[in-house]
Structures are given as C-alpha cells and as structure tokens.
C-alpha cells in the first residue's frame, strides 16, 4: 500500500448542522445507529464550541482487524477498513478494542457495524455521502502517500488519538475566522 484515503476535517468550517450524520444514517438505512457522529467541545481556541465529525478512522494499524476471531475485517489496498458482518458472532471484541468507539452494535442485525467510507461509492469514483452532504465543506477526503502520513493530534481538545492504531484522519485545527458555506449549498 503506497497511498490511502483519509478523512480531512476542518474545524473552522463545521457548524454542527449534522448533515453528515443524517446523510449517512439515511443512505445506510441505519435507523438510529450512527456510524458518523458530530461531537462538540468547549475550548479556549475559540469563542464558540468546536464541532468534530467522527466515525471510523480507518487506522493504518487497525486493532479491529487483529482482534476479530472470525476475521471479519479487511484493510484494502487504498487503506479503507471493511467489516463483513455476515459471519459476525456479536462477541463485541472489536467494539471494546477500538480506542475511538467507532464500532457499534446494530440492534437490527445484532452485529457490529461501522463506517465503510462508502466503499461502493469510492469504487465508482464518487465521494462518501457524509462528504457529499457537508454544507460547509468541513468534511472532505484526501489520498496521501503512506510513507509521509503523520497522525494529527489536538491535545487541548482532549480527543483520544491513540498512537498504536495510527488513525487515518487529518484534523485542521480551529482558527479565529469566518465560516463560509460551500458554493451551491443553502443553509437548512
């Protein structure tokens, strides 16, 4: 693997509209099981809260791949971590092991569930629905050379970044400034 997809989150642009959450939930027919969640932090960096859209980080060293006794996880060449729930026995080891709490128990299937980066859309050259529906462009994706990746941490926001998993996420830190809507988007 020489390059991999990463989520890129610009904390300057997120307005906590939750469009990414709703789009993911609707597209995947999750009925209240959120693969993507917007969380808010009170911080000294800004007069307003910082909002962070989170999901599976598609880690470079995913603990879920290592711990699943049924081998239901696979890391693709492009870095996307896929979960095949067909053989999932609901042992919850992956849920307990993930330092980001990205895996959830789907009450409908009684199996582990997680963000799959809308892999079926990626394979068709499309963006994940969460990114496509982000009103401000706060959530996007980048493809990076794995030899140059560095995990980005925000210690002052107390976000749990765990070095041994090497999350594939880049967070652009909150700066004082203006938030603009992405061209062609209208506020709800």
Structure description:
The longest helix has 9 residues, at 19-27. The protein has a domain at 3-61 and 116-172: Alpha-Beta Plaits. It has helices at residues 19-27, 63-67, 93-97, 119-122, 129-132; strands spanning 3-10, 37-41, 50-54, 73-75, 81-83, 104-106, 111-113, 139-145, 169-172. The protein is an alpha+beta fold.
Number of helices: 5
Low-confidence regions: 151-158, 178-188
CATH class group of the domain at 3-61 and 116-172: Alpha Beta
Largest sheet: 3 strands, mixed
N/C terminus separation: 40 Å
Main sheet strand line-up: 8-1-9
Radius of gyration: 16 Å
What is the number of strand segments?
A: 9
Helix-strand string: EHEEHEEHEEHHEE
CATH topology of the domain at 3-61 and 116-172: Alpha-Beta Plaits
Structural class: alpha+beta
Shape: globular
CATH architectural label of the domain at 3-61 and 116-172: 2-Layer Sandwich
Mean pLDDT: 83
């Amino acid at each position: 693997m020489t390059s991999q997809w990463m989520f890129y989150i610009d904390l300057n642009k997120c307005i906590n509209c939750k469009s990414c959450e709703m789009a993911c939930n609707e597209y995947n027919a999750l009925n209240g099981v959120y693969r993507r969640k917007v969380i808010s932090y009170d911080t000294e960096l800004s007069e307003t809260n910082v909002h962070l859209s989170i999901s599976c980080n598609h880690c470079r060293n995913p603990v879920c791949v290592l711990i699943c006794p049924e081998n239901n996880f696979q890391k693709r060449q492009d870095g996307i971590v896929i979960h095949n729930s067909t053989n999932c026995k609901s042992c919850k080891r992956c849920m307990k092991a993930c330092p980001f709490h990205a895996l959830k128990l789907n009450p409908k299937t009684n199996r582990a569930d997680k963000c799959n980066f809308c892999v079926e859309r990626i394979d068709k050259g499309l963006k994940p629905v969460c990114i496509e529906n982000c009103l401000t462009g706060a959530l996007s994706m980048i493809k990076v050379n794995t030899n140059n990746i560095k995990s980005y941490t925000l210690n002052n926001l107390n976000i749990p970044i765990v070095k041994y998993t090497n999350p594939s996420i880049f967070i652009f830190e909150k700066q004082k400034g203006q938030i603009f809507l992405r061209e062609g988007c209208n506020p709800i």
